[in-house]
């Protein structure tokens, strides 16, 4: 797997605020699920070598079967590196019986100071082939929009 998907968004908040929302359990449950999903974190250990397990549930699974079941995506996230307030690197493994979703995807969240806030760029490398590229990029963009709304509203 050598596919890379990427999305960026300018968020009207300082890098430290955005960084904090990347490592806060309540915040992640609020903003990380893309539109049409809700999320729940089962395990939480926000340090390098730690991570979390998120259950993403489709609000309407019609026409969008999940990777783990018809209505869910379960993903185990390992935190690989933390460089406050500029970078979070994670490894994501989807729980799935479908080999098209097998493998470890690396997600790098890069935060760069900008005149009006923080430019957040998410780069996903080694994306499993079963993940539709357009849907994945739209999902990342949706999560970034949710992140912007969350931090711009004061969390």
TrEMBL record:
InterPro entries assigned: ASHA1/2-like_C (IPR013538), START-like_dom_sf (IPR023393)
Alphabetical list of CDD domains matching this protein: SRPBCC_CalC_Aha1-like_2
Activator of Hsp90 ATPase homologue 1/2-like C-terminal domain span: 12-152
Pfam families referenced in this protein's UniProt entry, alphabetically: AHSA1
Superkingdom as given in the UniProt entry: Bacteria
Signal peptide: none
Protein family (similarity comment): Belongs to the AHA1 family.
Protein name in the entry: Activator of Hsp90 ATPase homologue 1/2-like C-terminal domain-containing protein
Source organism of this protein record: Streptomyces purpureus
Taxonomic lineage: Bacteria, Bacillati, Actinomycetota, Actinomycetes, Kitasatosporales
């Amino acid at each position: 797997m050598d596919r890379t998907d990427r999305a960026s968004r300018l968020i009207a908040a300082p890098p430290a605020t955005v960084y904090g929302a990347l490592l806060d359990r309540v915040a992640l449950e609020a903003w990380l699920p893309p539109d049409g999903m809700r999320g729940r974190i089962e395990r939480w250990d926000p340090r390098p070598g730690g991570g979390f397990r998120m259950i993403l549930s489709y609000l309407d699974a019609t026409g969008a079967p999940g990777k783990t079941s018809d209505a869910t995506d379960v993903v185990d996230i390992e935190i690989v590196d933390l460089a406050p307030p500029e970078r979070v690197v994670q490894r994501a493994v989807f729980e799935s019986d479908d080999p098209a979703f097998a493998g470890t995807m690396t997600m790098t969240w890069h935060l760069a100071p900008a005149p009006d806030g923080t430019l957040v760029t998410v780069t996903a490398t080694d994306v499993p082939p079963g993940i539709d590229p357009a849907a994945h990029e739209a999902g990342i963009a949706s999560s970034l929009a949710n992140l912007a709304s969350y931090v711009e509203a004061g969390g």
